[in-house]
Design brief:
By secondary structure, the chain is of the alpha/beta class. Helix content is 27%, strand content 30%.
């Protein structure tokens, strides 16, 4: 397995980075249609494309197909590493049935198990033979997850799921790269821009706002949109375009929210870094609706999420 892949950013028209898809096929398909990847562009899937969502195997298989392209790089995240522990680590293997019974969200391993239950009437009831069967039946999937690299390094950027320091060792410090929960909050400055997922941007901001966040203090671009973590989660995309010995950075956000128009003036408020932000929205403003319940609607307006009364909205069809 090649743990690090080196690139020269100037060789590409665009470098498109997406992170934390978390088994959401609809958003992945929308994203692929939107970007319309060309041969002179590079797509980097920055880990955690499985677990949390309902489409584990479908997303895994689509990502495996994408990985066959010369201009697509798929990196490992902590969720891919977590699943591999249950297939390779003895202390995890013996807990595999506990995972199936107590998993807090859908996992690709749980979906594999359910699929095997439909295929085999005599499915093994002990952990070791069950894992052996999973690795045999899903050999291609298992081998794919095993060989995922950890980071992409360019002349000016490093793309990694959760964290990076020069002293980290790719062989021995895997989880420092893949599950570094505090990294995006640290003040240590980096020579190259570090592009990470893993920690939802809304948590870093301390606000209901998923928009990718560049922090000059540490030269870190955080892009996890909390898809699969929060009901307001979105699939975030960072697009790097080399221009005149410099780089332009563009953002794309993919969601399945519905468009709506405000049919009256409303006052809204949200918690922004422990302070309430009050805003007056005018009749005719376009918003996105996350959900409606009990006469209330959770809406998105210019990156921020608010609650309004449902009768203030005219929801567009389609």
């Amino acid at each position: 397995m090649k743990r690090k892949i080196k690139i020269d950013e100037e060789n590409y028209q665009r470098i498109i980075i997406v992170s934390d898809i978390h088994a959401h096929l609809e958003q992945l398909d929308k994203f692929l249609n939107e970007i319309d990847l060309q041969e002179n562009e590079l797509l980097v899937i920055n880990g955690d494309f499985i677990n949390r969502g309902a489409d584990n195997l479908a997303v895994l298989h689509k990502v495996m197909q994408l990985d066959k392209k010369d201009n697509v790089i798929v990196l490992a995240g902590n969720h891919e590493a977590f699943i591999l522990e249950f297939l390779t680590n003895k202390s995890f293997i013996k807990k595999i049935f506990k995972l199936f019974k107590k998993q807090k969200y859908p996992t690709v391993l749980g979906d594999m198990y359910q699929e095997l239950k439909d295929l085999y009437t005599d499915l093994p009831q002990k952990a070791k033979p069950l894992v052996k069967l999973i690795k045999k039946h899903y050999k291609k999937e298992y081998n794919f997850l095993k060989k995922l690299p950890i980071l992409v390094e360019g002349k000016e950027h490093i793309i990694v799921h959760a964290g990076y320091e020069k002293e980290y060792d790719l062989k021995n410090d895997k989880y420092a790269f893949l599950k570094n929960d505090d990294f995006a909050y640290l003040d240590k400055e980096h020579d190259k821009m570090i592009i990470v997922g893993h920690a939802p941007v809304c948590n870093i901001r301390k606000s209901a706002n998923n928009y990718p966040l560049y922090q000059a203090k540490n030269n870190v671009y955080a892009i996890d949109g909390a898809l699969g973590v929060l009901e307001t989660g979105e699939l975030n995309v960072l697009i790097i375009s080399p221009r005149n010995n410099n780089f332009a950075y563009d953002i794309m956000q993919i969601n399945n929210f519905k468009k709506a128009i405000l049919n009256k003036n409303v006052n809204v408020a949200c918690d922004l870094d422990n302070q309430y932000l009050h805003l007056a929205l005018a009749e005719g403003e376009e918003v996105l609706v996350v959900k409606t319940e009990d006469g209330q609607a959770l809406i998105k307006y210019k990156h921020q999420f608010y609650w309004v009364t449902s009768d203030a909205l005219l929801i567009e069809k389609g």
